Amino acid sequence: MCRRTGIARSRVSWHSHAMQTSGALHLRPWLEAIATIATVINRPVSLPEVLDLVSETAARLLGYDFCAVLIVDEDGNSLAITGTYGLSSSYIQQVNADHPVMLDPDDELQAPSSKAFLTGRSVQVVDTLADATFLPWGGVARQQGYRSLISVPVVSSGVPVGTLNCYKRVPHEYGADERDLLSLLADQAGVAIETTRLRDREAATIAELLAANTALAEQHELLRRGEAVHEQFTQVALRGGGVAGVAAALTEVLGTSVVVTEEPSGAELAAVKRDEKPLVTQDTEAHSTPVMLGLDTVARIWVPRSVLPLPAIDVRALEHAATVCALEVLRARAALEVEWRLSGEVVTDLLTGNPAGLVTAAERAGRLGLDLTNPHAVIVVHGGTQRAGSARVLSVARSLVATAQPRALVSAIADDVVLLLPAKDQADALDRAGQLQRQLRRIGVGADTGVAVSPLCTTLADYPAAYRRARGAATIAQLRGQADTVASFESLGVHGLLLQLEDVSELRRFAAETLAPIRAHDATRGTALEQTLRAYVAHDLNTAATATTLFVHPNTVGLRIRKAEQLLGVSTAHVRSLAELQIALSADEVADALGTRGQDGGTARG
Question: How many angstroms separate the CA atoms of 285 and 267, rounded?
């Protein structure tokens, strides 16, 4: 349509001109030129290429030295050279960058191109050197080498869009015939601009439609795969596949290894290896997705770093997997809660020596998979008295016994976490207690706790005393700040021997009778003789170390020790006297450990 319109308009303009022009102008070259421009316009060429052709046609047919087509910018503030013939690149750059043709209707001093654009009429300068109004642009004219110019407005759909400028090296007056022919070419330039812009808009619209269609197709595929993933995980939940089933399904969807760990213990709940991709235990930068129950993180799903970043569909699959995994964890926990409650009852009956409970303890333990006819050790974790800390210790202990073979039982009695653990010998029991202690340290729990192991229990009657002594050992280890070692009777020395005594009152009586003089002196005088004596014995009779611990001068320690020796009628330099003092001081610590709460069958939490 553009081609027909252009040719038709060209023929009308030419026909009018042919009646007036001289014989020097020939019809054939113009028709061929117009036809060439119309053909180019309808091809997928750039706008500068078409405008270059218009400029060349004007120069060639009318004998001009230079020609250019200037186009208005998007804001309508200036004109820029877009198509040219004969103009140097430096001139074009200087005009466009440094001296653009400004379009300000209120400016008294306007360039010829600005006047032509704003008025819609051709503007010519016959001699750039003689025309005073052209003085501001004389420099660029001299640089390019032209003496005359004409600027013809270019209109597209009735709206001015630019100008067609033609230049000659000599002074020249552009007559009516030339202006008509230049108007004809300006019309072709307008058609070219309109056609090119229309083509660009159509191309942009097509590109947007293609992009939208692609996005819709991708969204449809995402929804389809999302529904398939949802259906797959729903089937896992319906058939009760457990956490292992979720991990297996997720491995199939993602095509990579998957590991599920429990929180906060970090214990592995399920692991599925795929191809050569490493498991999370071998990938320190793996990606994890939390599994939430309410506001609590109960597990984490891990995938290797090598598959990151995950596509949107895989992220959605992980979210589905986390939801189903939460349901499976909740289901497993509901079953475990029953088992833990029953375990707690058995452990409490055994350790507190409840006569009624002991009758059926072995049978109930058997139903839970524990054979009490085999040797068992009692492991006690004492401390972490804050409720959150005690809960985390219990969680780690449960994770440990869940994988124990043969089975073990765990319970919480007051602030203690207690494990009944089958053991081949004492070394085996110490090793298992060490595993528990290391897991507590790994999650940042246990720095203020004491962990102790009792001697092996071989009969039901052994358990109450084993628990009492193990708890005492754990308490002493905690008080001593020995959180990095597992306490046993062998490691406690005199304290271990004293823990064997059944009667706590005898320990207190012995300590009270032995230490009575200095306690009475401390009570009436406000001194610290007993505290100093305890620190002095604990530091192997080292005066300087004792002074550092108590933040006093070494001479003060010496005076206090001599006063204590005087009141007690003993000398710490005598081995026998020192042994009696150490036993009295240790007996008091053991009595405190054995006499703390929890020995009267405190509430158990399985």
Answer: 18
